[in-house]
Amino acid sequence: MAGEADYDMLMHLTGEFAGRFLVISLIATPVAMIFPKGKVGKWLVRNRRFFGVGAFAYTLLHTIFYLIEIPLEKVVNEFFEIGILTGWIAFFVFIPLAMTSTDAAVRRMGVSWKKLQRWVYLAAIMAFLHWALVNVQDPHWKPALVHFSPVIIFSIYRIWKHYQQKQ
Ligand code: HEM
């Protein structure tokens, strides 16, 4: 068993990296749309899948550390707490997305691959809420918002653009 401080540090690090990779994978398309001639957007889009898989890999590590450290009885008892349940939902949504991240899956699934990938937004909302509320007595809205603000801002921009084009 890891010491309390080691466990906290491992959870914090793996959680933050999972969140950061997720955010990078989500801002790739809007950055490329807003700066169509920019190299950064093109690079992000080309590597988007790697960032997504990276987010899943860190989430998996994060979950494994949790399951090693926390007794099964506690895992079961706190499953439905808002700060934990949101983490589990993000994790379970990530699994099919990561499993279909290969070129072969993209080819085989065609249009339904794109539809499946949209579930990443649910995973992102759940990951955000989990980050903010995992310690519900002392919510961490600030770091969660700082990390997810690019996704929030770009999402608002994309919705606004969508309605502009409709009019
Ligand atoms: C996309 C999925 C996930 C992301 C991005 C994520 C992110 C994070 C982050 C950033 C923290 C640190 C919060 C802070 O110290 O301010 C954290 C803590 C934590 N996460 Fe996750 N997490 C995810 C999934 C999960 C899952 C599936 C579990 C297992 C149920 C879990 C359990 C925990 C626990 C127990 C802590 C608190 C650790 C402590 O005692 O300090 N997380 N998570």
Question: How would you sum up this structure in a few lines?
Answer:
This protein is mainly α and 167 residues long. It has nine helices and no strands. It has one domain (4-166).
What does this structure look like?
The longest helix is centred in the N-terminal third of the chain and has 31 residues, at 4-34. With 167 residues, the protein is mostly helical. The chain has 9 helices and no strands. It has one domain (4-166). 20% of the residues are buried. It has helices at residues 4-34, 39-46, 48-69, 72-77, 82-99, 103-109, 111-117, 120-133, 141-166. Bound molecules: protoporphyrin IX containing FE.
Distinctive features:
167 residues; mainly alpha; 9 helices; binds protoporphyrin IX containing FE
For this structure, the quaternary state is single chain
Radius of gyration: 17 Å
Biggest sheet descriptor: none
What is the H-and-E element order? HHHHHHHHH
The small molecules bound here are: protoporphyrin IX containing FE
Helix content: over 70%
Strand composition percent: under 5%
Tell me the overall shape: globular
Look at the structure and give the mean pLDDT: 95
Record field, number of beta strands: 0
Number of domains: 1
Number of helices: 9
Task: Spell out the blueprint of helices and strands.
Layout: H1 4-34, H2 39-46, H3 48-69, H4 72-77, H5 82-99, H6 103-109, H7 111-117, H8 120-133, H9 141-166
Helix pairs in contact: 1-2, 1-3, 1-8, 1-9, 3-5, 5-8, 6-7, 8-9
Protoporphyrin IX containing FE (HEM) binds next to α1, α3, α5 and α8.
